[in-house]
Specification:
This protein is α/β, with parallel strands linked by helices and 246 residues long. It folds into two domains: 12-81, PGBD-like superfamily/PGBD (Muramoyl-pentapeptide Carboxypeptidase, domain 1, Orthogonal Bundle), CATH 1.10.101; 91-242, Zn-dependent exopeptidases (Aminopeptidase), CATH 3.40.630.40. Helices cover 48% and strands 15% of the residues. The protein has helices at residues 12-23, 37-49, 60-72, 79-90, 109-121, 134-144, 174-191, 203-206, 220-225, 227-242; strands at residues 99-105, 125-128, 148-154, 161-166, 195-200, 212-217. A six-stranded mixed β-sheet has the order 2-1-3-6-4-5, with helices on both faces. Strand 1 (99-105), helix 5 and strand 2 form a beta-alpha-beta unit. Helix 1 packs across helix 3. The longest helix has 18 residues, at 174-191. It is elongated. The relative contact order is 0.14. The mean pLDDT is 87.
Length: 246
């Protein structure tokens, strides 16, 4: 029996349920293994279409019906990814219509403050997140109303500017992937380092409700020297991400 609980249910069984729903056209949001409100809504929609009681609880009858229909309709793509790619193709209309949440993990207040100033100068609404740890950053981001999240983290041994986005064996965030690509290239250029992206399922990109990326940069001496350059690079990357391509 899978349902919304406090704390929320998490696990591979939830991810499998989400994947089956998305393959049949019922959008559970990101396939992240977390039984939240979107997953409950998708279950209820499926139950209504299947003639079951629409309580949003994935009990035995619901799971049996999902598996029966999945045999008839082999998965080709997931509806949540189709929707993300559609939004990505249309794109938000520039920073003037975008609310950005930005935070840091480990003593990068000056970089975040400078990036926030640069973003505001370009027309963005900015939410600077002052949470104490990464779990609190997730909560603060989800409550911020932002359309995207960037968290900057120090990697003392960094040999590249690396941006992390959400992807698992079952699904990925296309908008998060594009955000990570854009951030890593801009940050690498600003710091004089190679650029890299990495797919992960860490909470900052998995549990946030918007496209998100964690930018890992270092060493600290280089960040201190190039704070202004990095802040401008983050703002430029977000402006590029938020502007539809010609």
């Amino acid at each position: 029996m899978l349902s919304t609980t406090a704390p929320l249910l998490r696990g591979d069984d939830v991810a499998e349920l989400q994947e089956r729903l998305a393959a049949l056209g019922f959008d559970p949001g990101r396939v992240d293994g977390i039984y939240g409100a979107l997953t409950r809504s998708a279950v209820a929609s499926f139950q209504r279409d299947a003639g079951l009681g629409a309580d949003g609880v994935a009990g035995p009858a619901t799971v049996v019906e999902l598996r029966r229909l999945a045999v008839r309709h082999p998965r080709t793509t997931l509806v949540n990814e189709v929707k993300e790619r559609s939004v990505l193709a249309r794109g938000p209309r520039g920073l003037e219509t975008t609310t950005v949440a930005i935070g840091q993990s480990g003593g990068l207040d000056a970089v975040v403050a400078a990036a926030a100033r640069e973003l505001r100068a370009r027309g963005a609404a900015v939410r600077v997140l002052d949470a104490g740890d990464e779990a609190q950053l997730v909560v603060a981001a989800n409550e911020s109303g932002a359309r995207t999240l960037v968290v900057i983290r120090i990697d003392p041994g960094a040999t590249a500017a690396t941006a992390v986005y959400f992807a698992s064996e079952r699904s990925e965030s296309p908008r998060g992937h594009r955000l990570a690509d854009t951030l890593s290239v801009a940050a690498g250029r600003a710091l004089g380092m190679p650029a890299a992206t990495r797919a992960m399922t860490v909470p900052l990109v998995r549990e946030t409700t918007m496209p998100a990326s964690v930018l890992e940069v270092g060493p600290l001496e280089r960040l201190v020297e190039r704070t202004g350059h990095l802040a401008e690079a983050v703002a430029t990357a977000l402006e590029s991400w938020a502007t539809p391509s010609a």
